[in-house]
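Researcher: Next sequence.
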Amino acid sequence: MEHDSGELDGLVRKRIRALRVAQGWSLEDLASRARLSQSTLSRIENGQRRLALDQLVTLARALNTSLDQLVETAADDVVSNPTHDAAHGLMRWSVRADPGMTVVRHRMVDPPPDNLSRLRAHPGREWLVVLSGTAILLLGNRRFRVETNQAAEFPTMLPHAIGVESGPCEVLGIFDRDARRGHQTREDAKADRAPR
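Model: Next structure:
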């Protein structure tokens, strides 16, 4: 979607104010952080002062964001569809804002391994939420029961495995780039060993 300069100008001004308010900051608070006068900041937010690039950079920094995020426009492709990995029973979504992140929906039916030597470790971080059923997360020498609507987040350098307690379990996981690579390598190795 194309924005004309007037629309973008108004969007940026609204975004500055919204970010300030979300932080719980007054005009004075943000003006102090951005080293601007309170009246200058007020005129920027209200459209009574021209937006200058140097001020936008300073405001972005003060608001703990980037200039790109401050001026980005809405995208037409807000909705994304999953790719289906039938071989592993997975649906995957990529996260456009961070191409290294992947969201995976997985229906599990197997319990976690009973032999702790089968736990795997790899670089990265994982976050998962149990959508239905009860999952068992083995993490190092600890065992966690993760029930419906509960989430778990852990560094994947700890040896780990996940399975079901009893009956099927559906999990939604978010993997950073390194964790995704660790799982892809493992899944590809399983697929190669599977009878054809």
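Model: The longest helix spans residues 5-22. Confidence is low (pLDDT under 50) at residues 188-196.
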